[in-house]
């Protein structure tokens, strides 16, 4: 299972399961979305924050969280940025 938390029009949590099935839940805040994503207990959570909101430089800045042995999550070294389609 793979989980992506992304800021679009609200905070969307996308869950991709082994069969490629994508489930999507919209939440009001980043904190709620990450808490929900963590409750699913995936190995990795990809988080997409918008930088430069409503400017020509608007893009998603992606950070990846990895589950630790104790079940908590920590920021990994995997990060990148991509132009936002919204």
Provide a quick synopsis of the model.
The protein is 12% helix and 56% strand. With 86 residues, it is mainly β. Strands 3-2-1-4-5-6 form a six-stranded mixed beta sheet, with helices on one face.
Q: Number of domains in the coordinates? A: 1
Roughly how many Å is the radius of gyration? 13 Å
Could you describe the largest sheet, including whether it forms a barrel?
A: 6 strands, mixed
What's the SSE pattern? Answer: EEEHEEE
Overall form: globular
Which secondary-structure class do the elements indicate? mainly beta
Please count the helical segments.
1
Mean pLDDT: 86
Strand order of the largest sheet: 3-2-1-4-5-6
Query: What is the tally of beta strands?
Result: 6
Query: Poorly predicted ranges (pLDDT <50, ≥5 residues)?
Result: none
Question: Distance between termini?
Answer: 26 Å
In helices, the fraction of residues equals 10-25%
Beta-sheet strand percentage? over 45%
